[in-house]
Specification:
binds adenosine-5'-diphosphate, 5-stranded mixed β-sheet, alpha+beta, 9 strands, two-stranded antiparallel ribbon, about 350 residues
Length: about 350
């Protein structure tokens, strides 16, 4: 696209050329006529000493009158075309300026709308985080009260005890949801700061498997670890959140007996951690949507959940500078594989496993 000054230079150029050609149009034809007249007069009277006969008149007519007229016509045509070109350029210049003004106006409007949206988003996050905070305290109290009631009312009828257990599990579910919403609002507002350091993945993975209450005997977990593993540079709590979430999903979306395999590989300064299950699987066309907020796949309809886990997990992985990759054929029983990357700790030594 041409700039204002380029347009102005071109338009001025055409105008100047038209003026010069116009000047030539007034000078050249009369000069030519005069030159031809003097030349013919000299030739016929002085050199050949012939009278002013038909030849003289014919040559004077052709070269002294028709020639200058033809040159005038051609130069006039050129001047007119140059003026037309100048007008076209002026019109283009005006159009271009109008277009640029419109673009600038729309850009300002978009920036303003964007600013408003950002402010709305900030208010929404603030509101969500405030409500979640307010909900967390009473939920903790209710949970404490329920635990006390369950431990002190050993002699109460089984139906009452059963009801208390149901209430307790619902309160736990609600607490988890509130905590997840709080976590997401912190991540979305950009307030989550990672407390990174060197982490021994082998030890961390074993700890998670030992401590995860959601892991049961019906879902045997296998660790496929290389004999020597490098340390990663990550936030331990957040890395635990990522792995626990993926493991929890592997259990949730696999039938009893479904084996879960945790793999570890190192490539391009990154650790690749994979969690593979043999559950219901994910339809290939759903895969790209799984990390969207509140998205629940076809497999999700049979299980409890809100479609927030993978959104949160993906955000945490991105914050670490890694990536999440999801693979599944969608065939029940073939399951799915969630692989994510975390940067290696460049300064640390290898973590050797003496157990092997
Ligand atoms: P939720 O499990 O609460 O629905 P997530 O964000 O953790 O939310 O998962 C989003 C969707 O991804 C789930 O609804 C489910 O359809 C699908 N999904 C996640 N993990 C698995 C898995 N291991 N196997 C099959 N489907 C899965």
């Amino acid at each position: 696209m041409q700039t204002h000054s380029e347009y102005a230079i071109r338009t001025n150029g055409y105008l100047r050329l038209a003026q010069q050609v116009s000047l030539v149009r007034w000078i050249v034809p009369p000069s030519l006529a005069l030159f031809v007249l003097s030349f013919e007069l000299t030739e016929h009277t002085l050199v050949h000493s012939t009278p002013l006969d038909m030849d003289f008149l014919l040559e004077l007519f052709v070269f002294g009158i028709l020639g200058p007229i033809l040159i005038t016509v051609i130069l006039t045509w050129i001047v007119r075309n140059l003026h037309e070109l100048e007008h076209v350029h002026q019109a283009m210049h005006a159009l271009n300026a109008e277009l640029e003004n419109k673009v600038a106006l729309r850009t300002r409007e978009l920036a303003h709308a964007n600013e408003e949206l950002r402010e709305l988003d900030r208010l929404k996050s603030e509101f969500v985080s405030l409500v979640s905070h307010e909900l967390r305290a009473p939920l903790t109290n209710i949970q404490g009260g329920l635990e006390l009631m369950l431990s002190t009312t050993i002699s109460c009828p089984p139906s009452q005890r059963n009801t208390l257990c149901i209430i307790q599990s619902e309160v736990k579910r609600l607490t988890r949801l509130v905590q997840r919403i709080l976590d997401i609002s912190v991540v979305d507002s950009g307030q989550l700061t990672l407390n990174r350091g060197p982490i021994a993945l082998r030890t961390l993975l074993r700890q998670i498997i030992q401590n995860s209450v959601f892991l049961d005997k019906q879902h045997p977990v296998h660790l496929d670890l290389p004999p020597a593993t490098q340390l990663v540079f990550a936030d331990e709590d957040r890395l635990t959140d990522i792995i626990s979430n993926l493991l929890q999903n592997a259990v949730k979306y696999s039938p009893a007996g479904g084996e879960i395999r945790i793999g570890l590989a190192f490539e391009d300064d990154m650790a690749h951690i994979s969690i593979r299950d043999h559950g219901v699987g994910i339809k290939p066309e759903e895969i790209e949507h799984l990390t969207q907020q509140f998205y629940r796949g076809n497999s999700g309809s049979q299980a409890d959940g809100y479609g927030l886990g993978l959104y949160f997990v993906n955000k945490l992985i991105e914050l670490h500078g890694g990536q999440l990759q999801i693979e599944s054929t969608g065939i029940p029983g073939e399951g799915s594989c969630f692989t994510f990357t975390v940067p290696l700790d460049q300064e640390s030594l290898y973590e050797l496993d003496f157990a092997y």
